[in-house]
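Review box. Two proteins, two foldings.
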Amino acid sequence: MKFTALSCLNRERSGDAIQISLAPMMGAEYTELVRIISRGTLNGFVRNRVEPRLQRVVRQQLDAWYALVSRTEWKNSSELKQHCRNASIVSSERVVFNIKGNEFRLVVAVDYDHGIVLILWLGTHWEYDRIDVKQVKFDKERYANPTGSN
C-alpha cells in the first residue's frame, strides 16, 4: 500500500487558532506504510533541545522509532498498542511514546484511515508532566534553533 502526499484543502480562522484540513494530493506517492510528519521536528529537537552529550543516543532512539513506525500499518489504537506495548493511548487519535527508556516523551496524532502520524510534542519526561497531553499542540518555535541559525 502507498499513501499519497498531503496538501492543504481548507484554512479556517477559529479565534486565535488556524484550523488546517489535510487531504491526499493526487499523484505523489510514498513507499512507507505510514507517513510521519515531520522528521524535521525530531532533528530540530535533538539539535536544539538535547544536551550535546546525549544527542547521539537520543538521535539513534528517535531514528529507531521513526523506522519502526514508518513500516507499520495500524487500523486502530488497539493494533497500535499490540505492536507498541509501551505506548500510552490518550484518545482514539492521540498516542504517547516513550523514548530512551522513559527519559523522553513523544506525543503524536494518528490518522489510522490515511496512515499518517503527526508529531505534536517532544520533550523530557519532566516537561511532559507539566503539559496537558490531551490539549498540547505543535509549536514549531519549540524545535527551532534559539540563536536563529539552523
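Next protein.
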Amino acid sequence: MNNEAAAEPAGLKVLVIDDSNTIRRSAEIFLKQGGYEVLLAEDGFDALSKVNDHAPDLIFCDILMPRLDGYQTCAIIKRNARFASVPIIMLSSKDGLFDKARGRMVGSEDYLTKPFTKDQLLQAVSQHCRGSAADQVADAAPTVGEVAGAD
C-alpha cells in the first residue's frame, strides 16, 4: 500500500549515487534506519538505469565520479520530464561556493558535504520529500541550507 498521506516515510524510495562503497553503505544504513527504501548506484550510468527502472522519490548524487560525474548525471535526470521534479541533493567532500552554484545550475535542490551524519542525511530527506507530518514541522524551522548560507 502506497499511501502518500501517511505520516511515516514508508514507501519513499531514495537513490544514493556514489563511487565510494563506504559512503553508499553508510547512507544505506542511515536511510534504512529512517524507514526508507534504498537504491544504490556506483556511478552516473548505473544511476540512470535505476532512476528509469525504479523512479525514486529523492536522489543523493556524488559530484566526483568516474565516467559520468554528478553534474552530468543530475542534468540528464532533470532533462527527462518524467523525473524533472525528483529532488536531487549533491554530495561532495568539497564545501565550495562554486560547487554549490554549479549544482544549482544543473538542477539540484540542495548540497550535502561529506562526511555527513545520520541526522543530516535524514533531515535532507525530510526537507525535500513533502507530505509527511515531519516534513511540515521541518518546513517551519530554518533548514540546514538556510542556516549554513547565513555565514
